[in-house]
C-alpha cells in the first residue's frame, strides 16, 4: 500500500483523486452530475443517491486503472463534498431522501423560523449558521410535506459522510461539514440534539461525531466488489469542501487568512475561539483542524461576472483571440492593466459585502459609463470587475478582523483568478498586504487526501500532512501609493452601492442573488 484516495463530491461534478504520500496527484477521474427538481416542488433540487453512487463507482475504478494501482495499494480513502447537502437514512441504512446544497424548497420554513429573531440569534450564537442554508428548514419541510419519510428517518448525514457510509457502512459526522447543517455546536464541535429541538425537530437523527482524519472503518466486501478498492483500505472522515481547501492551502493556525478565487470568492480567516459575529454578518464554521474555527465570507459571482462580460461585451477581443490563438480574458486583462486605479470612474454593482443575516445583493449593473464607448470603456468596465472583487474581499476581511480581534499579516490567494498577475497585484494593493500564491492546484482534494494519510497513520494529523505537502508559486507585495488611492475608490463604491441596494429592496430592480427567506 502506497497511496491515498480523495473523493470530491462537488455541486456540479464528482472526482476521485489518487495521491502519493508526498501529496502529488497520481490520477484523477471525474464525472459531471445533475440534481433533479422534485415535480411540483418549487426550488427543490434532489440528490439522486443510487445514480450518483454509480458514478462514484465508475470514477474510483477509472482512477485505479489510470494509475496502474490495485485496490490494495490504496492505504485509505477520505471524502469531501459540497456543503449543506444532506442524505437521510432509515433504521436499516436505506437512503430515503436526499437534497443537494442548491435545494431551496424551504423558503416558507426559513421565514417561519426567522420570524423569531431571538431564535435565529440563539442558533447563530451556538452554531455560526443562520437558517438560510441550514438543514433545519429542509427537515421542517419534510415533516410538513412528507411526514411518512420524516417518521422513517433514522440518521441525517452530510454528503461527504454519505460517501464514506456507502464505502464502510459506518454512520458518523465531523464538525467541518457538519457545521453547515446547523446541528453542530461550535463550542463542543459535536452534534447537539438540542439544536434540532430548537428547530421543532426530532432530536435522535444525529450519528456520532468524530474529527477529520479519524478512521471510522474499512471498505466493506460489498463496496470493494463494486469499486475495486481493497477490504483493508481504511475509510477516514474528511470534511466540507471549503474547510478542506483551507487545510490543503496550509491554513492550520489562528489568524491565517485565504481567498479562494473562482466562480465565487470564498474567504476564510482562522479563529482561535468559537466566537460568532455579534452582528451575524459572516458565517462561522468549525475548521478541519481540532481547536480551530473559521469565519467565512463570500463574494458572489465574481468569476461569473468576468465570463459574462467576456461573452456579452468583448466580441472584438474574442475575434482577436481567435485570430492570434490567445485567450480573450488575457486580452481583456492586458487592456485593463492600462486603465488607472478607479477604472476611469466606472462603478461596478455586483457582489455586496457579506451580510449573512440578510444575504442579498443589488442588481448587476455598471454606473458612470462614458458615452465615448469603444475599447477603452470596455477595458475600464472589465478592470472595475477586478477591482470590485478585491474591494469586497478587503471589506470582508476587515469585518472579520474587527469582531474576532485577529489580524492576517499576509493573505493566501488561490484559485483560478490567482493565475492573473494583474488581478493578484490589484488584490495586494487593495488589501495593503502581501499575498502568497500556492502551487497547489487541487486544494480541496489534497485536503481530503491529508485526512486519509493521517487516518492511515502516515502523518500524526491532517495538518501535519497538509503542511508537509505545501509548496508556493510566488508572492506579490502591495504598492503603498496604490493602496492609498484605493481607499478613495472603496469609499466611492460603498456610497454608490447603498442606493442600488435600496432599489433592489423596493422591488424596482432584481437582486443578483438572495438567500431563501432574505
Automatic annotation (TrEMBL):
InterPro entries: ATPase_NBD, Carb_kinase_FGGY, FGGY_C, FGGY_Carb_Kinase, FGGY_N. The keyword Transit peptide does not apply. Residues 4-248 form the Carbohydrate kinase FGGY N-terminal domain. Gene3D superfamilies: 3.30.420.40. It holds the Pfam family FGGY_N. The keyword Kinase applies. Keywords: Kinase, Transferase. It comes from the Bacteria. Residues 259-455 form the Carbohydrate kinase FGGY C-terminal domain. Its EC number is 2.7.1.189. GO terms for molecular function: kinase activity. NCBIfam families: PRK10939.1. Belongs to the FGGY kinase family. This is Autoinducer-2 kinase. It comes from Leucobacter muris.
Amino acid at each position: 500500500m502506497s497511496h491515498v484516495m480523495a473523493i470530491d463530491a462537488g455541486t456540479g461534478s464528482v472526482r476521485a483523486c489518487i495521491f502519493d504520500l508526498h501529496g502529488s496527484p497520481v490520477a484523477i477521474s471525474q464525472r459531471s452530475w445533475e440534481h433533479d427538481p422534485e415535480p411540483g416542488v418549487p426550488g427543490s433540487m434532489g440528490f439522486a443517491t443510487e445514480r450518483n453512487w454509480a458514478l462514484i463507482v465508475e470514477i474510483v475504478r477509472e482512477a485505479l486503472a489510470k494509475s496502474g494501482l490495485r485496490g490494495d495499494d490504496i492505504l485509505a480513502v477520505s471524502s469531501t463534498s459540497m456543503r449543506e447537502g444532506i442524505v437521510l437514512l432509515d433504521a436499516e441504512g436505506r437512503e430515503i431522501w436526499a437534497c443537494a446544497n442548491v435545494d431551496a424548497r424551504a423558503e416558507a420554513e426559513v421565514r417561519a423560523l426567522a420570524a423569531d429573531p431571538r431564535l435565529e440569534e440563539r442558533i447563530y450564537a451556538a452554531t455560526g449558521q443562520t437558517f438560510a442554508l441550514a438543514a433545519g428548514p429542509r427537515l421542517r419541510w419534510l415533516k410538513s410535506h412528507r411526514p411518512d419519510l420524516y417518521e422513517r428517518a433514522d440518521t441525517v448525514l452530510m454528503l461527504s459522510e454519505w460517501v464514506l457510509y456507502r464505502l464502510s457502512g459506518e454512520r458518523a459526522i465531523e464538525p467541518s461539514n457538519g457545521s453547515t447543517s446547523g446541528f453542530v455546536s461550535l463550542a463542543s464541535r459535536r452534534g447537539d440534539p438540542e439544536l434540532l429541538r430548537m428547530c421543532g425537530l426530532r432530536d435522535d437523527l444525529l450519528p456520532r461525531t468524530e474529527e477529520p482524519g479519524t478512521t471510522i472503518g474499512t471498505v466493506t466486501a460489498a463496496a470493494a466488489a463494486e469499486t475495486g478498492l481493497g477490504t483493508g483500505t481504511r475509510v477516514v472522515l474528511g470534511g466540507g469542501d471549503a474547510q478542506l481547501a483551507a487545510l490543503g492551502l496550509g491554513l492550520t493556525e489562528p489568524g491565517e487568512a485565504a481567498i479562494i478565487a473562482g466562480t465565487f470568492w470564498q474567504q476564510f480567516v482562522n479563529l482561535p475561539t468559537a466566537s460568532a459575529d455579534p452582528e451575524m454578518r459572516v458565517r462561522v464554521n468549525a475548521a478541519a483542524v481540532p481547536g480551530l474555527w473559521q469565519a467565512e465570507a463570500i463574494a458572489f459571482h465574481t468569476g461569473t461576472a468576468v465570463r459574462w462580460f467576456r461573452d456579452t461585451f468583448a466580441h472584438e477581443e474574442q475575434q482577436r483571440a481567435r485570430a492570434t490563438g490567445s485567450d480573450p480574458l488575457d486580452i481583456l486583462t492586458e487592456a485593463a492593466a492600462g486603465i488607472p486605479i478607479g477604472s476611469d470612474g466606472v462603478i461596478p454593482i455586483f457582489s455586496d459585502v457579506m451580510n449573512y443575516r440578510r444575504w442579498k445583493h443589488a442588481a448587476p449593473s455598471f454606473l458612470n459609463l462614458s458615452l465615448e464607448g469603444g475599447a477603452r470603456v470596455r477595458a475600464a468596465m472589465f478592470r472595475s470587475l477586478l477591482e470590485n472583487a478585491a474591494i469586497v474581499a478587503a471589506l470582508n476581511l476587515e469585518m472579520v478582523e474587527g469582531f474576532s480581534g485577529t489580524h492576517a499579516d499576509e493573505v493566501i490567494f488561490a484559485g483560478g483568478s490567482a493565475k492573473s498577475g494583474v488581478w493578484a497585484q490589484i488584490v495586494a494593493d487593495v488589501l495593503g498586504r502581501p499575498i502568497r500564491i500556492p502551487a497547489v492546484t487541487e486544494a480541496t482534494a489534497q485536503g481530503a487526501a491529508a485526512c486519509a494519510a493521517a487516518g492511515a497513520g502516515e502523518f500524526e494529523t491532517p495538518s501535519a500532512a497538509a503542511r508537509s505537502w505545501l509548496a508556493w508559486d510566488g508572492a506579490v507585495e502591495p504598492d503603498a501609493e496604490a493602496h492609498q488611492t484605493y481607499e478613495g475608490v472603496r469609499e466611492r463604491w460603498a456610497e454608490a452601492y447603498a442606493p442600488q441596494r435600496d432599489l433592489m429592496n423596493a422591488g424596482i430592480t432584481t437582486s443578483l442573488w438572495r438567500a431563501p427567506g432574505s
